[in-house]
Write a structure and sequence with these properties.
This protein has helices at about 5-10, 15-65, 95-100, 100-105, 145-180, 180-190, 210-260, 265-305, 315-330, 360-375, 445-455, and strands at about 80-85, 90, 110-115, 120-125, 130, 135, 135-145, 310, 335-345, 355, 385-390, 395-400, 460-465, 470-480. It is an alpha+beta fold. It has a five-stranded antiparallel β-sheet. Strands 9-11-12-14-13 form a five-stranded mixed β-sheet, with helices on one face. A two-stranded antiparallel ribbon has the order 5-6. About 25% of the residues are buried.
């Protein structure tokens, strides 16, 4: 990842994109100018050598067949010299300062080289034709200053052109960055509206399947989860306030009555006992609200990637037995029988047993809440059966009683918060004619809501139905964790 120097980090994203892309373009253009310059130098040098070879060829050809040749004068601007075997210069169109260096070139191997003469550079081609008279030397030369002028002019032209391209590239980068960031600006403006209308605001998702669209989709999903969480918390606070109002008012009245009957010990004791019951209900309500809050917090952490614990079938079965024993302590006061039935997974005992995204604490809540509700609803001498078994791909916890059941209108709302069945299931208040739900003094109305929350956190579901033969059946299904998950 490219990291900008600290001063550049204070600039806008558009400025940083423009500066960064322009800097990269400047480096690329500079490298191109250098490469082109070297290529031009190579091409010019090669072209000069070709011309020099052409200048020497006629004289070399003549000397190879004639020991006493008559040389024709070189063409205009041609610098050619012919040195005889006795070091006499037979032909020369060279400047005087170059002629003085010819003597040193007669012993030089044939080829191309650059020589310095009186502060000037010349590119020369040297040939040594041989005939009956001996070894001759033919030299053709050109001043390298002309090459340098051509290369320098071309380099200047490339530099000016590269600078113009760089300026154009910088402007184009600014425009493109502005255009590319336009959806971000729209998302920012839409995000500002969240403070005004958070329930309706949604970040725009562009038609292109690019990174910005993915970002907007992810943020919209985050906003949706946040709104849902906020709405749940708002609803819980509203429901809790509504539910707390009645027992607090009752508790206040009971304490007022107790203060009025301070001289009557029996009446005072009765008022205190009723006040203790009200406090107990408030305590249960607070504990249930705290339990729901913890479950929802765990769900949020797991949705953010936190690891979710898994528990083996047998460990959950042990917890079912322990929870049933705790429920029996309550049921014994009403002579209610609480039995359990564990049906282990079928198959080879050596096979790995199923595992579920459900801890033992969650299983305890499932058994205690469902079986405890059944015990509270049953008349004396009733019976409750708790079954924990496996089916292909899931574990099933089932709690069945032989009580009066619930109104069918209550079944769809049974797992909603702060709802309770009518007096057929332990309430002595008048039910809501629409749903059969009432505010029952005995319970918090959160037991089944906690059951559903625990089941859904484990990826499962909870259902309730009246048994045709009589009684109520609560079924919780928890999917099995795939091997290696």
């Amino acid at each position: 990842m490219v990291r900008f120097p600290r001063p550049l980090r204070l600039l806008s994203l558009r400025s940083r994109i423009t500066i960064g892309s322009t800097a990269i373009a400047a480096v690329v253009i500079a490298l191109l100018v250098v490469v082109v310059r070297f290529q031009v130098v190579s091409v010019v040098a090669s072209a000069t050598e070709t011309l020099l070879d052409a200048d020497t060829d006629p004289y070399v050809a003549t000397l190879e067949v004639d020991s006493a040749p008559a040389f024709s004068a070189p063409g205009n601007a041609q610098l050619v010299a012919v040195v005889a075997p006795d070091d006499e210069i037979r032909l020369s169109s060279m400047p005087t300062r170059v002629e003085r260096a010819l003597g040193s070139l007669t012993e030089v191997r044939a080829g191309t080289r650059v020589i310095d003469v009186a502060g000037s550079q010349y590119r020369v081609v040297i040939e040594h034709p041989v005939n009956q008279a001996g070894r001759w030397t033919v030299v053709a030369a050109r001043n390298s200053q002309a090459e340098a002028i051509v290369v320098d002019d071309l380099t200047t032209t490339l530099a000016v052109t590269g600078l113009a391209i760089l300026v154009a590239f910088g402007i184009a980068s600014w425009v493109l960055a502005t255009t590319a960031l336009h959806p971000v600006n729209r998302m920012r403006r839409e995000a500002e509206r969240l403070s005004v209308a958070p329930e309706r605001a949604e970040l725009p998702v562009g038609p292109a399947q690019d990174e910005l669209a993915s970002l907007a989709t992810t943020l919209n999903a985050f906003l949706a989860r946040t709104r849902q969480a906020t709405e749940r918390e708002r609803q819980m606070v509203s429901d809790a306030s509504h539910e707390l109002r009645t027992p607090l008012a009752i508790l206040t009245t009971q304490l007022d009555l107790a203060s009025l009957d301070g001289d009557d010990a029996q009446a005072l004791a009765a008022h205190i006992e009723r006040a203790k019951n009200s406090v107990a209900r408030l305590s249960r309500l607070a504990n249930d609200l705290l339990t729901l809050s913890r479950i929802e917090e765990s769900e949020r952490r797991e949705a953010d990637g936190a690891a979710q614990t898994t528990t083996a079938w047998s460990d959950l079965g042990d917890e079912v037995m322990a929870a049933v024993d705790r429920v029996r302590l309550i049921a014994s006061a009403k002579d209610i029988t609480v039995d359990f039935d564990l049906e282990p997974p079928a198959g080879d005992p050596d096979d790995a047993e199923p595992r579920y995204h459900l801890d033992t604490g969650g299983m305890a809540q499932l058994v205690t809440n469902t079986a405890g509700n059944a015990v509270a609803a049953l008349p004396r001498g009733g019976a409750v059966t708790v079954t924990w078994r496996t089916t292909p791909g899931e574990g099933v916890l089932q709690v069945t009683d032989d009580g009066p059941g619930v109104p069918e209108s209550f079944v769809p709302v049974a797992f909603d918060r702060f709802t309770r069945p009518d007096e057929a299931r332990t309430s002595r208040q008048n039910p809501d004619p629409a749903t059969g739900a009432v505010a029952m003094p005995g319970g918090s109305g959160l037991g089944l809501a906690i059951v559903r929350a625990v089941a859904e956190r484990a990826g499962g579901s909870a259902a309730l139905r009246n048994v045709p033969a009589g009684g109520l059946e609560v079924t919780i299904r928890v999917p099995e964790v795939a091997a290696g998950a």
